[in-house]
Amino acid sequence: MDPLVFILFRNLLSFPPDQGKKSAYYSDICVGSIACRLEKKEGGAVRVYIMTLGTKLLNHVLDLSSKQNISEIYLHVQTNNEEAINFYKKFGFEITETIQNYYTNITPPDCYVLTKFITQSQPKK
């Protein structure tokens, strides 16, 4: 495993093994990966933080989160990254916050927090 990928994945929290990280391969070449972690909010609610992804990998995390009754998923996107912002909006993410000077080595240094709130369906009686 690539050392950078290992470092990215080693801090995943409470997802069952191999569910907080996933890689996509084409002809034995890694063409995408996703890493996420569960975080507890004040009051005890749990949300998912996404660190990197692609379409199929994002769908994997959305499906997994829904099955585990996670109601919130969020991530950071640089404010000038319109392609990424539009990508996430297609999946129902919305801009919920702007953080000034979030990044230290890139311009612009500001980011948006994009959040997707998942409505849990109630089991039929």
Structure explained in plain terms:
The protein starts with a helix and ends in an 8-residue tail after the last strand. By secondary structure, it is α+β, with helices and mostly antiparallel strands. Strands 1-2-3-4-6-5 form a six-stranded mixed sheet, with helices on one face. The longest helix is centred in the middle third of the chain and has 13 residues, at 55-67. It has helices spanning 3-9, 55-67, 82-90; strands at residues 21-26, 29-40, 46-52, 72-78, 94-99, 111-117. 23% of the residues lie in helices and 36% in strands. Helix 2 links the parallel strand 3 and strand 4. The protein is globular and about 35 Å long. The chain has one domain (3-117): Aminopeptidase. InterPro entries: Acyl_CoA_acyltransferase, GNAT_dom, N-term/lysine_N-AcTrnsfr. GO terms for molecular function: N-acetyltransferase activity. It comes from Tetracentron sinense. Residues 1-119 form the N-acetyltransferase domain. This is N-acetyltransferase domain-containing protein.
